[in-house]
Design goal:
The protein is an alpha+beta fold. The protein has one domain. It is about 25% helix and about 40% strand. It is built from two helices and nine strands, in the order H-E-E-E-E-E-E-E-E-E-H. It has a nine-stranded antiparallel sheet with strand order 4-3-2-1-9-8-7-6-5. It is globular and about 55 Å long. The chain starts with a helix and ends with a helix. The relative contact order is 0.16.
Amino acid sequence: MTYAIRTLFAVFVIICSSTAFADAIDGDWCSTSDVKQFRIEGPNVTTPGGTPTTGNYSRHAFAYVVPDGEPGAGDAITMRLLNDDEVRVVVNEGEPKIWQRCELIS
């Protein structure tokens, strides 16, 4: 394979993978109202309290129960991806809050 073809293939792979990633709830999310953050990687989440745990994952939604030892332990958290940059977060069927991808807030 020539250098030009290898380079073109690498660019194509990067573009395809970033497009797929943008259409998924996976990634780092930050609260716009206070200094909180969580990370979703498939069925794994690192909570705003810093605890790794698992939840119910789909490409555009995520749900988990706040683990013991964190504020709000036992609360049910549900999230729904609204668009590439915003996710709707609800605690125990309460008032929804909109979180953004962290790189947009920095």
